[in-house]
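ok new one. same drill as before - structure tokens go in, u give me an amino acid for every spot. 183 of them this time. try not to just spam alanines like last time pls lmao
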């Protein structure tokens, strides 16, 4: 089985419905794939609650309940990431997403929208792929590549971890600060 995960608040701007639609297409070609959507709607936001109901209803109406699993907000997300195979972010806006960095630290290849600081996290074709928000065709193509190639997933996942360790860890920040100080 290939386990795909996205972790974020359930909001329209995060694009979970795009990922669900992509999984619906992939399920026609691959038997043993599953999507975990980690996160909850924002209780104080009627729009978020409405969007959660919309995507949940879409899953039910299209008979995707065995494929797509809403797992809610999780305190054990690091453990879940370590058991997953691919991390996807379909967000329409981001700054420098913590969830993507956590997935990379867990040695996952990433497929993320090219928004905000995500381009700083992805070495294209090395640890993952970037795509434009809403471009389901490109998302599908990247998912097919990774779903179909366990060896590539592993190689890219190790590169993801290396990127976090060398560029974005506390040790890397301290080293960069020290280099800046002595220049």
């Amino acid at each position: 089985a290939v386990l795909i995960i996205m972790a974020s608040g359930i909001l329209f701007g995060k694009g979970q419905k795009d990922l669900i639609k992509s999984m619906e297409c992939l399920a026609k070609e691959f038997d043993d794939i599953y999507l975990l959507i980690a996160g909850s709607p924002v209780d104080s936001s009627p729009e978020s609650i409405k969007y959660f109901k919309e995507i949940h209803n879409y899953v039910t109406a299209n008979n995707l309940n065995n494929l797509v699993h809403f797992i809610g907000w999780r305190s054990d997300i690091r453990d879940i990431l370590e058991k997953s195979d691919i991390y996807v972010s379909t967000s329409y806006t981001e700054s420098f997403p913590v969830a993507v960095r956590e997935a990379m630290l867990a040695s996952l290849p990433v497929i993320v929208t090219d928004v905000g600081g995500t381009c700083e996290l992805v070495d294209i074709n090395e640890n993952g792929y970037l795509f434009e928000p809403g471009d389901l065709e490109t998302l599908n193509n990247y998912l097919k590549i990774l779903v179909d190639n366990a060896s590539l997933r592993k190689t890219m996942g190790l590169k993801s971890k290396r990127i976090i360790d060398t560029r974005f860890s506390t040790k890397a920040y301290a080293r960069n600060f020290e280099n800046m100080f002595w220049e």
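The mean pLDDT is 94. and btw Helices lie at 16-26, 46-61, 77-83, 98-105, 118-121, 136-147, 150-168, 170-182.
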